[in-house]
Write a structure and sequence with these properties.
Number of helices of chain B: 13
Distance between the termini of chain B: 46 Å
Oligomer: heterodimer
Strand content of chain B: under 5%
Strand order of the largest sheet of chain A: 2-1-3-5-7
Number of helices of chain A: 5
Strand content of chain A: 15-25%
Largest sheet of chain B: none
Helix content of chain B: over 70%
Radius of gyration of chain B: 19 Å
Order of helices and strands of chain B: HHHHHHHHHHHHH
Radius of gyration of chain A: 14 Å
Chain lengths: 137, 310
C-alpha cells in the first residue's frame, strides 16, 4: 500500500451531497459529526468545497434536475474519491421509487463503493459504512 | 561557502523543514484545543501530517476557467515568503550578529506576501466565490496592517532601532516590553491583528467555510491545497514568534530558556484559539470598523504612552 493511500485512510474528508433526500438522512449525517461521536478523532472532517473531498456522502434518490449536477460533482472531485450512499432511498429509491421526478438510485449513474441502508440509518451505522470503505482501500 | 550556509539555513534550520514541522504541530494544537472546548477528544498529533501526505498524493485539478500559472505558482510564492520571514526572524533571535539594519521592516512586509499570494491565487481560480474571498482578503489586509504597524512602532521607538538585535538587546537590559503599560496595550492590539493575519475566527472572513465554502482556496485540490494549508500553519507559527520577538523578549533554544520559549508560544496560540472558539464570524465592514476604530485608537494610545516613557 502506498504512503498516500495510508494517509488517506487517516484523513478522509467528507463532502455531503443531497440528491433529493427528505432531509432525514441529512440530519443523521450531521449527528454523526457532532461532539458525541467526534469523528475528528479519525481525521474525518466535513469540507465545504468539492475540490477538497475524499469521500462523497450521497443521500436520497436521484431526481431529474439533480442528475447533471451529480455527474459534474463526481467529475470535479480530485481522484481517488470514494462514494458512499446513505439511506434506503439512496440505495434503491425507497418509498419514492414511483415518483414522477425520480430517475433511479445513484449507482445507476456513478460508481458507488458502499451502501448504508436504513430509513434513516443511525450515526453508528454511517460511521461503520465509512470504516468499511476505508478498509477496502 | 556563505551561499551554501544561507541555503542550508533557509531549507533546514531555522527555515523550511523546522518551520513546517512546528507549524503543522501548531495547527494540531489548534485543533486539539478546539476539540477540548467542544468537550471532544480531538485528532491525534500526527493528523496534520497525514492530511498533508494525503493531499500530496491526490489529483491536482485545474479548473477550466483558471489561469493555471498564477493559480499554481501563487501558493509557492506564499510558502517561500513565509519561510523566509521565519528564517530571518529565527536567525536574528539565535545569532544576534545575523541581524541587520531594518530587518524588522523586512520581516513585516514579507509577512504580508502570503496574504497577497492568496489574493492572486484566488483571483486566478476563476471561481466567483474565490474572487469574493480575494476581495475580502484585500480589505482585511488594509484593515489590520495599520494598527499592527503602530503597535510595533512602540517597541521601535523605545529601542531607537529597527533591527531585531537592538530590540532584543533593549529588552534584555530594560525588561521586556510586555512589562510596561504601552507594551501591554500594543500586545492586545497585536493579538487581534495576528488573529486576522492567520485568518482565524472571528476574522476568517476570506475563507468563511459555511458561507463561501472555502473562499480564497475553494478551487485548490491535491498538492497546491497542501501548500496552502502548510502556509497557514507556518503563518500560525511566524506571527506569534514575531510578536514574542518584538514585545516579549524573544525566543531562544539555549538551556532552560527553551522551556520559556515554548511556554510563551503556547500561551499566545492558546489565547488565539480561545478567541477563535468563543466568537462568531464578523462581517467585513464590522472587521474594518473594528481595526480602524478601537484597535487604531488603542495602538495610538500605546504609542503616546511610549513617547511619554511608560
Amino acid at each position: 500500500m502506498s504512503l498516500a493511500l495510508k494517509a488517506l485512510k487517516k484523513s478522509p474528508w467528507v463532502f455531503h451531497v443531497n440528491t433529493g433526500a427528505c432531509n432525514n438522512c441529512d440530519i443523521e449525517i450531521l449527528d454523526a459529526l457532532t461532539p458525541r461521536f467526534d469523528v475528528e478523532r479519525f481525521g474525518i472532517v466535513l469540507v465545504g468545497s468539492i475540490r477538497h473531498a475524499d469521500v462523497l456522502l450521497i443521500s436520497g434518490p436521484v431526481t431529474r434536475n439533480v442528475l447533471p449536477r451529480l455527474k459534474r460533482l463526481y467529475e470535479a472531485a480530485p481522484k481517488p474519491v470514494k462514494v458512499i450512499v446513505v439511506g434506503a432511498c439512496g440505495c434503491r429509491c425507497g418509498i419514492f421509487r414511483d415518483g414522477y421526478n425520480i430517475i433511479g438510485p445513484a449507482d445507476k449513474f456513478i460508481p458507488v463503493d458502499a451502501y448504508v441502508p436504513g430509513c434513516p440509518p443511525k450515526p453508528e451505522t454511517i460511521i461503520a459504512g465509512v470504516v468499511k470503505v476505508l478498509g477496502t482501500l | 561557502m556563505d551561499a551554501a550556509k544561507y541555503l542550508l539555513n533557509f531549507l533546514i534550520f531555522p527555515g523550511f523543514l523546522f518551520t513546517a514541522v512546528v507549524g503543522l504541530l501548531a495547527t494540531w494544537v489548534d485543533r486539539k484545543v478546539t476539540a477540548r472546548v467542544h468537550w471532544r477528544v480531538g485528532p491525534p498529533w500526527y493528523q496534520p501530517f497525514a492530511d498533508t501526505v494525503k493531499l500530496l498524493g491526490k489529483e491536482i485539478v485545474v479548473p477550466a476557467g483558471a489561469k493555471s500559472t498564477g493559480f499554481l505558482v501563487a501558493p509557492l510564492v506564499g510558502l517561500a515568503a513565509a519561510t523566509l520571514a521565519s528564517t530571518i526572524l529565527w536567525m536574528a533571535n539565535l545569532y544576534p550578529t545575523a541581524s541587520f539594519v531594518g530587518d524588522s521592516i523586512v520581516v513585516f512586509y514579507i509577512m504580508t506576501i502570503p496574504a497577497i499570494s492568496m489574493i492572486i491565487g484566488a483571483s486566478a481560480s476563476g471561481n466567483p466565490l474565490g474572487i469574493l474571498g480575494a476581495a475580502r482578503e484585500m480589505k482585511l489586509l488594509t484593515a489590520y496592517e495599520l494598527p499592527l504597524v503602530i503597535a510595533m512602532l512602540t517597541t521601535v521607538y523605545k529601542a531607537h532601532s529597527f533591527s531585531f538585535a537592538a530590540i532584543l538587546d533593549y529588552q534584555a537590559h530594560h525588561g521586556v516590553m510586555l512589562g510596561s503599560f504601552s507594551g501591554v496595550i500594543a500586545f492586545i492590539v497585536a493579538i487581534f491583528c495576528a488573529q486576522a493575519k492567520c485568518t482565524m475566527l472571528p476574522f476568517d472572513i476570506p475563507e468563511a467555510e459555511t458561507e463561501l465554502a472555502g473562499g480564497s482556496h475553494i478551487e485548490y485540490s491535491g498538492a497546491p491545497l497542501a501548500v496552502v494549508r502548510l502556509n497557514m500553519g507556518i503563518m500560525f507559527f511566524v506571527v506569534p514568534v514575531f510578536i514574542i520577538t518584538m514585545l516579549w523578549g524573544g525566543v531562544s533554544l539555549e538551556g532552560w530558556r527553551i522551556l520559556t520559549t515554548i511556554l510563551k508560544y503556547v500561551a499566545i496560540i492558546t489565547i488565539m484559539v480561545l478567541i477563535k472558539n468563543t466568537n462568531p464570524r464578523v462581517r467585513i465592514d464590522q472587521a474594518m470598523r473594528f481595526f480602524w476604530g478601537p484597535m487604531l485608537i488603542l495602538s495610538i494610545i500605546a504609542m503616546i504612552l511610549a513617547v511619554l516613557g511608560y
